[in-house]
Protein: PQ-loop-domain-containing protein
Organism: Hypoxylon rubiginosum
Amino acid sequence: MMATILDVTLSRALSVNEILSGIFGSISLTAWICLLLPQLITNYRAQSADGLSMVFLAVWLFGDIANLSGALVTGLAPTATALAGYFCISDIILISQSLYYNVINARKARQRTRSTQSEASEDEPLLQPRRRSSSGLPGSHRRHSVHHSESNLEPIKRVFTGEDDTPDSNPWLHNALSVAAVYIVGAAGWFISYKVGAWEKPDAADDEPSTESPVAILGMVLGYASALCYLCARVPQIIKNYRQKSCDGLALLFFLLSLTGNLTYGLSVFSYSQEPAYIVKAVPWLLGSLGTIVEDCIIFYQFRIYSKSGAAKSDNTDEAA
């Protein structure tokens, strides 16, 4: 197998740097393709996107737009440019779903508020004497009956909807296996495309623009703008998690795939060439991808501590009941 790969490599005259850049880029592309699925599924099951910060998504989109523009102008590695374009598409999909659920849930909340106010105004004169006892609160028996009947129907509901509220005993292990699968699929995808000739080099390479040309300067400005957006995007999400002391509504695999995508994306850009001129113009992309890894680690820490605090609160509630 290794001999075959080396033969193909030699026949197509690709350098080791280009091979590594292609493999890392393919893994990163696989991670970003799969990135949306965990969070989209989480939002769909909860019928809500309250766990996500809309500022986080908006700034992320601005960063991806600047990233794509800068990659096109500067002439980065093909995988980097392809990923930048996919980032924009994925952002729009996730933002659209989040806005949809936010609008729908806000409308339902207003309807519930109006319904509650109308019921209270109609029943209040007749039910005032019953307020002396907490067990005789208006509608308490009715709500208890409805809740009891819904709890009895919950097993049937799960059968037809396919929902399962059983907590994952080891989510970190299962998500790690998913990330490992991304690495395997991404690397295999590159080798397949490599063998069919998708990575053959052109006969003559185009001359790269000078680092002092207006095009290169514009690309650098866009690159640094995207890096700044990436570094700032996760701050609102971190603050939101801290204020709520919860990561409910967030998919852990979403951020694990983001970490994988950022890491391999940076490695793809860096592996493409180590020439000083190329490294200088690639600095903003390296900063934007590798710099956000630190912020992702903060979110992982929040998952860890807030899941423990949530479990402790649940245990206390069960004991009190």
About this structure: The chain has one domain: 13-107+170-200+207-320. The first helix runs from residue 2 to 12. The chain has nine helices and no strands. Residues 1-11, 131-151, 153-166 have pLDDT under 50 and may be disordered.
